[in-house]
Amino acid sequence: MTDKIVLDYCKKMEELGIKNKVLEHPPLVEAAQVVNHLGYTLDDSVATLIMKADDDFIAVLRRDVTKISFKKIKKLLGIESLRIATPEEFSKVTGLEIGTARFYVPNLKTYIDKEVFGKKYILGGTGSLNYTFQCLSEDLKKLPGVEVVDVTVPIEQEKSHSTSVKRVFSGIRATGRLHLGNYLGAVKGFLELEKSGEYETVYCVVDVHSITTPYDKNALAKNKREIIIDYLAAGLDPKKSIIIYQSEVPEHIELAFYFSSVVTIARMQHLPTYKDKVKQHPDANTMALLNYPVLMASDILIYKAGLVPVGIDQEPHLEVAREIARKMNQLYGTDFPEPVRFATKGEYIPSLTGEGKMSKTVVNSFINLTDSLEKIRKKIRSVPTATAAGGEMSPGLKTLFIFAQLFIPSEVEGFKKSYQDKSLQFVELKDRIAEAIYKELKPFQERRAKISADQKYVDEVIRDGAERAHRIARETVKEVKHKMGLL
Ligand code: ATP
Ligand code: MG
Question: Is the pLDDT of residue 481 over 50?
Answer without folding.
Answer: yes
